[in-house]
Specification:
By secondary structure, this protein is mainly α. The chain is built from two helices and no strands.
């Protein structure tokens, strides 16, 4: 969530807040709902990967 706040501030500073939507949560929970929503051009997933 902290990284999302920084990203949101940078997106706003770039004047792109109308074009970019940030969602925080598990991709497995979020992705299925996207199919029912408006079309999208790009999805970036910054997954939380366990360290090895």
């Amino acid at each position: 969530p902290d990284y999302a706040k920084v990203a949101s501030a940078n997106i706003a500073r770039a004047g792109l807040e109308r074009l970019v939507e940030i969602r925080v949560g598990r991709a497995l929970d979020t992705l299925p709902s996207l199919a029912a929503e408006a079309p999208f051009d790009f999805i970036f997933i910054d997954a939380d990967k366990p360290s090895t």
